[in-house]
User: What shape does this take?
Amino acid sequence: MQKEKEMRLRFPPSPTGKIHVGNIRTALFNWLWARKKGGKLVLRIEDTDTERSTREFEEIIFKELNWLGMDVDEGPNRGGDYGPYRQSERLEIYQQQLDKLLREGKAYKCYCSKEELEEMRQQQKEAGEIPHYDGRCRDLDPAEVPGDADYVLRFKMPETPEEIVVRDLIRGEVSFSSEDFDDFVIQKSDGMPTYNFAVVVDDALMEISQVIRGEDHLSNTPKQVKIYQALGFFVPDFAHLPLILDEERAKLKKRSDEQAVYLGEFREQGYLPEALFNFLALLGWSPEDEQEIMSREELVEKFDISRVNKSAAVFDREKLNWMNNAYLREADLDRLLELSLPHLKEAGYLDKSSWLMEAGRFSGEREPDRDWLKEVIDLSREGISCLAELPAEVELFFTELEQEDSEAAAQDFQDPEVREVFQRLKAELAGLAGEADYSEERINQVFQQVRKETGIGGRKFYHPLRLALTGRGSGPGLVKFAWLLGQEETCRRLELALEQGE
Ligand code: GLU
Assistant: This one.
């Protein structure tokens, strides 16, 4: 009986830039499928573009995969039996395969200069043809070749037209005609293999059984199939993931500073990795039960490559915001605090000059009072979709009181009934025995007591009080707010309001 082949998948990014969410979605689908099927996931760095590839970008790739919790089984950092895992370290391997094709007459040297190719292209365009290489070097007599001329290697596509069939796990069998492809370059004049060649050699020698990648590569696949066949390699199955479009149905790319498209930008804006993980998994796939919020384990369990859509997925930022909000609400507060600190710092809220520092909210070491910050974050997290929005949401807690409409407030504060409420509240709250006695429960008792004693309740009680404490017409619950503000500051604000109403 034949042993079932081990499932081996790969993610082969090019380290030529910051990593785009589209690329990460590809990595994620490979990861989910490998984990679901107990297969292996290989990370391969495709750095044959020597001008644009850098180790810094490579580091970013490792960092981002790690951030999202996607471990790989083999790769430059992990090792494995199929290395090296950087294409730049595999040049000899490619050369052997290139030599083989040359020897067998399946590839040839092309000496055409840039100018000659350009002229060919122009003439074809004028004749109404699609520009292509016309094969003029295919049967070149070696005697005609100048010894030291630069050349590239081209792959010989079939002379007689044939159908090339790609087995795709999402699209079924996709047919192409060999006539639509010319003799393409497989090795550049500097000796570097081209993508289409190197990817085949690597996928074959690394025994990749399924190639899962973006739809933008579908048109490369027939060329790759021909190379597999020419080298006598087993042709893997393919799965081409649908494109990701933005809300305007255009290709998802950078349009403005606010609109993140690189994974690192989402992290900087305070999206949680588990939220992005969940969101990206739903770009082009959904489980049968249509569940939306799913843990990593649930996603692994439910994922199925054959359920991936053929049609493009839309990167719906509103949905991402909704999802991130859902994860923020559930997140551990200590963790959220750590993630929030850079945002609060950037907003200047933790500066020594902020009124909070003056009010002694932070200790002598000027370390933020973690418990207080956690309370503030807890109270505010419902209203934000990412942590970058936190400073605006918590502004009230960090900045000196400012009346949104000071004239209207002053008018309210002139009302004798309101003044009586403020005076009593101030006296009662100031009378509590220090911060320990200044609890939410006690504050609430004071509020109720003053309402009862003055006979003033409802809007007449709460609206001016809200203005006095927050400077705004709406906002957080007042008992909680007064508690977070602290005894001293709350009394100071009541006094301030009384002065304003004089
Ligand atoms: N390095 C290629 C890319 O990042 C890999 C494409 C493939 O998966 O074959 O687009």
